[in-house]
Design goal:
By secondary structure, the protein is an alpha+beta fold. Helix content is 44%, strand content 26%.
Length: 371
């Protein structure tokens, strides 16, 4: 009798798992080398699945409910073990509990910057991070590809794998989308929804998971690109290049010191060009109006002035037009060449494009500075 009690105690009669953690993905029920009794009770709670594995082969899968283990409700296991006419003896089998609840707030991010081509800034590097939610949808595939025979497989053991997989898909999708860096911040929600459709098939086929939500929280650019964006914002706030130059000059002169002297250089050069232009126009006007008025005494052809004028070569009818490159105009104005090109593209500064190069007449630059 005592011997029969010992045998009975070695048999498993109830199989259940109460999950007291929030990060367990799968749990191998500890049988302590005991056998499962014929007719044993299996309890599967909500947000759980139970996968039976017999000698390395996946057998029956149980959804939430209470089951009595007989030949009728374990048909795959019965086939694997060759129970053609039912069984009456205990048996051994690995029992895996799978947590099917939604795991929320998992973080992802790029450990290294993503290289991409941007139409505004050329080749730039972007960093991105966000969160995602997921659940297990295919217990057998998850156990085979991810958890294996781990006794207690937790989410932190899988976080790095998921993060690298998501970042890889994100990088590829962002490159194909060709969204400008300046517009990415306005499309966080749109990009998240679009990337979800690309990430889900990949992780579902590979790991037996479903990504239910994918959020893009922030995309950052390198400091030099941030400075370029700030300069462009300042240009937009000032209205045009002329006002921007005046603003910079005023700020430098208010600070005093060498900055004030340096700030006056572009203005002095611009004024010098303007004065030279006016003098040239005056000289042209004088040459055009040099004919003596009617009734005036004719000049003495034998005077010293007439002899000197005869020896001096005749002045050209019109002075040659002075032309500047965008780089030279930027140097005169004390701004970046990109700022000059931006004003040309906006139509504020008149210029002519010859081939792939721009040329700016001094008169057009003077007209631009006068506003």
């Amino acid at each position: 009798m005592d011997f029969m009690k010992i045998i009975t105690k070695q048999l498993i009669e109830i199989i259940e798992w109460t999950d007291d953690s929030r990060d367990t993905l799968s749990y191998r029920w500890p049988d302590e080398d005991k056998e499962i009794k014929n007719g044993a009770q299996l309890v599967v709670r909500e947000s759980q699945q139970v996968q039976f594995v017999s000698e390395g082969q996946f057998a029956d899968l149980f959804n939430p409910g209470r089951y009595q283990l007989t030949t009728q409700n374990i048909p795959i296991l019965s086939t694997l073990r060759g129970w053609k006419y039912g069984f009456n003896s205990p048996f051994k089998c690995d029992v895996y509990y799978i947590n099917t609840r939604l795991f929320t707030g998992n973080k992802w991010g790029t450990s290294n910057p993503i290289m991409m081509r941007d139409k505004d800034f050329g080749v730039i590097r972007l960093r991105a991070f966000g969160t995602y939610d997921f659940r297990i949808t295919d217990a057998a595939k998850f156990l085979k590809e991810v958890a294996g025979t781990d006794q207690n497989f937790r989410i932190d053991e899988f976080a790095d794998t998921m993060r690298s997989r998501i970042v890889s898909i994100f990088s590829e999708a962002l490159a194909k989308a060709q969204v400008p860096a300046l517009d990415v911040a306005q499309r966080y929600s749109e990009l998240g929804d679009a990337l979800l459709q690309l990430i889900n098939p990949a992780v579902s086929e590979k790991y037996g998971l479903e990504i239910t939500s994918f959020l893009l929280e922030n995309v950052s650019v390198p400091p030099e690109v941030e400075q370029a964006i700030d300069k462009r914002s300042s240009m937009g706030a000032s209205g045009n290049l002329n006002d921007y130059v005046k603003y910079q000059m005023g700020q430098a002169m208010a600070n005093g010191g060498e900055g004030a002297a340096a700030a006056t250089i572009p203005a002095t050069m611009a004024m010098g060009f303007g004065m030279a232009q006016e003098m040239m126009k005056g000289m042209q006007g004088g040459a055009a109006g040099g004919t003596p008025a009617s009734g005036a005494a004719p000049a003495d052809p034998f005077s010293p002035a007439a002899a000197q004028a005869a020896q001096t070569p005749a002045a050209p009818a019109a002075a040659a037009m002075q032309v500047l490159t965008p780089a030279q105009a930027a140097q005169v104005l004390g701004v970046a060449e990109a700022d000059v090109l931006a004003e040309i593209q906006a139509g504020n500064l008149k210029a002519r494009q010859i081939g792939s190069q721009w040329r700016i007449a001094q008169a057009a630059l003077d007209e631009f500075l006068r506003g």
